[in-house]
């Protein structure tokens, strides 16, 4: 459901025609599953059809299919009709086809982040804004685009000294030298204080607080540096909008630094310091404005992440070590039931693994290679994809082939990009091998530590061991901020009281949007 709140009615009513306004929407869309992102169906709880977008069962209309999700996404964007749309989690493999509909909505310009499997991308309407020259800067998971609002008037322009007088001076027709000098000075066009939009998708992970802090500080600094490069009169006070998926709550350093303006060594995130020295944001115009909170007198800022509560059911914080949490007994018992249903290989007494405690089982049957294949098909649709497959293969004895000359890990091709994909394709399940119950639990422990709570939840459910309903987890991970020289005229809220994604929401995240004006 979309709700619109007018925050600054005096600006909208009295100055809308004279002052430039800019509407920006930010949306982590959940990676399109048209060619990549096969696991998207696992995000739905309760589970939906496994592969509604594939030819495996011929169903192309399921709610987790990209055609269906795309139609819902288009509807969400059309309702707000923003000038600039900042997306997170687009796929470079299918980017053009996935978002061909954006042109139909008027977004005829775009810029995609240059690295990664899931990338930020910014779309805009050229009838509303124009990208200034060299106005794109790629940072560490941040994408800066700098615009001139097309509808702005002369009062919104700053001029360099002597530029106007030299350009408009009337000269005799035969005074060639004076004309050339005037032309050279006229080339110093008025320097507009443009609008800078930082689209970010900060690093996920409970221990990535220091990197998230560096990323957001770098994104803000990129706007200041570009404003200085352009020659804006006050580059440390740019017209700046910062938005995206911060992958952190109110207590994360990357969020706090924007409103506190600085973070020191005493600031802890998840019990750990995020910096060894004092860090400041690059702007000097004071704290940035939390856009959603600016309508706080109307309603509390709504959550942007509405999903099933799973962490309390899965993670045992008392068992945390350097590698992360372990699974709760609740999950381990369910995995034991599942393992017993798949296991068909009888182990000789001398081959049995010595176990105790929660790894003890009554049965001497273990999961052989064919059993593991059946399990993988049930959860992932086929053998050969997913971290469950790769970690199981390694636990069963698969070892990578030695690297070829000039292709060592960490080199120019290393385990990044094509070489990493090639190595994944080489992984196979060793024949006539077994996956012990301890290793079976280890596979899902790694899923837990990788933040794939939704994947564990799905797998347990489709294997007949669904977790109890613990309600919803809600958080405000997607945010939008602006500098104090901008005013927030309108805020657009999308709210949901059901676990996302679902038949109405195409992503596990909800969009945030606002209309900005000048003070």
Low-confidence stretches: 52-59, 152-174, 407-419
Largest sheet: 7 strands, mixed
Gross morphology = elongated
Total beta-strand segments:
26
Distance between the first and last residues' Cα: 30 Å
Output the number of helix runs.
15
Physical arrangement of strands within the biggest beta sheet: 1-25-26-2-3-5-4
Query: Helix- and strand-based class?
Result: alpha+beta
The overall pLDDT, averaged over residues, is 85
Strand content: 15-25%
Helix content range:
25-40%
CA radius of gyration is: 27 Å
How would you summarize the topology of this molecule?
Elements: E1 2-6, H1 9-15, E2 22-28, H2 66-80, E3 84-90, H3 95-98, H4 101-104, E4 109-112, E5 119-124, E6 129-138, E7 142-149, E8 157-158, H5 163-168, H6 176-186, E9 191-192, E10 195-201, H7 209-230, E11 239-245, H8 253-260, E12 262-263, E13 268-269, E14 272-273, E15 279-280, E16 289-290, E17 305-308, H9 311-314, E18 315-321, E19 324-327, H10 329-342, E20 345-346, E21 365-368, H11 369-380, H12 387-395, H13 418-426, E22 434-435, H14 437-449, H15 453-462, E23 472-475, E24 478-482, E25 486-494, E26 512-518
Parallel strand pairs: 2-3, 10-11
Antiparallel strand pairs: 1-25, 2-26, 3-5, 4-5, 6-7, 7-10, 8-9, 11-24, 12-15, 13-14, 16-24, 17-23, 18-19, 20-21, 21-22, 25-26
Helix pairs in contact: 7-8, 12-14
């Amino acid at each position: 459901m979309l709700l619109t709140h007018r925050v600054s009615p005096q600006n909208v009513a009295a100055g809308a025609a004279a002052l430039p306004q800019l509407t920006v929407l930010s949306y982590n869309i959940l990676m399109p599953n048209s060619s990549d992102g096969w696991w998207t169906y696992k995000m739905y709880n309760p589970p939906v059809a496994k592969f509604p977008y594939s030819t495996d069962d011929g169903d192309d209309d399921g709610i987790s299919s990209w055609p269906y999700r795309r139609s819902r996404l288009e509807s969400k964007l059309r309702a707000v009709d923003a000038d600039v749309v900042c997306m997170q989690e687009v796929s470079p493999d299918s980017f053009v086809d996935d978002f061909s509909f954006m042109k139909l909505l008027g977004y005829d310009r775009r810029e995609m982040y240059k690295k990664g499997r899931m990338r930020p991308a910014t779309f805009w309407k050229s009838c509303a804004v124009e990208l200034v020259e060299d106005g794109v800067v790629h940072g560490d998971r941040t994408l800066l685009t700098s615009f001139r609002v097309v509808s702005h008037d002369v009062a919104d322009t700053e001029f360099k000294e002597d530029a106007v007088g030299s350009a408009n001076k009337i000269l005799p027709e035969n005074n060639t030298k004076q004309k050339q000098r005037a032309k050279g000075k006229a080339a110093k066009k008025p320097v507009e204080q443009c609008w800078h939009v930082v689209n970010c998708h900060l690093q996920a992970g409970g221990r990535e607080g220091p990197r998230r802090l560096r990323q957001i500080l770098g994104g803000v600094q990129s706007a200041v540096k570009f404003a200085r490069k352009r020659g804006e009169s006050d580059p440390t006070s740019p017209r700046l909008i910062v938005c995206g998926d911060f992958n952190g709550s109110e207590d994360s350093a990357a969020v706090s630094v924007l409103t506190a303006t600085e973070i020191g060594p005493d600031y802890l995130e998840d019990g750990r310091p995020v910096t060894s020295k004092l860090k400041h944001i690059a702007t000097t115009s004071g704290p940035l404005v939390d856009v959603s909170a600016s309508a706080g007198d109307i309603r509390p800022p709504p959550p942007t992440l509405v999903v099933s509560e799973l962490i309390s059911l899965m993670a045992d914080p008392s068992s945390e070590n350097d590698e992360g949490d372990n699974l709760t007994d609740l999950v381990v018992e369910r995995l034991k039931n599942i393992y017993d249903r798949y296991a068909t290989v009888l182990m000789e007494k001398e081959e049995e693994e010595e176990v105790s405690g929660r790894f003890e089982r009554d049965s001497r049957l273990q999961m052989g290679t064919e059993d593991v294949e059946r399990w993988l098909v049930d959860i992932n649709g086929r053998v050969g994809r997913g971290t469950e497959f790769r970690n199981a293969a390694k636990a069963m004895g698969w070892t990578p082939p030695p690297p070829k000359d000039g292709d060592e890990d960490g080199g120019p091709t290393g385990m990044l990009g094509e070489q990493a994909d090639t190595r994944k394709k080489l992984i196979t399940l060793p024949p006539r091998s077994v996956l012990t119950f301890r290793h079976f639990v280890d596979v899902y422990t790694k899923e837990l530590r990788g933040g794939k709570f939704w994947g564990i939840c799905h797998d347990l459910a489709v294997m007949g061991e669904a977790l109890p309903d613990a309600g919803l987890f809600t958080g405000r991970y997607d945010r939008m901020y602006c500098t104090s020289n901008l005013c927030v005229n309108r805020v657009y809220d999308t709210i949901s009281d059901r676990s996302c994604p679902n038949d109405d929401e195409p992503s596990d995240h909800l969009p945030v949007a606002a209309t900005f004006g000048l003070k």
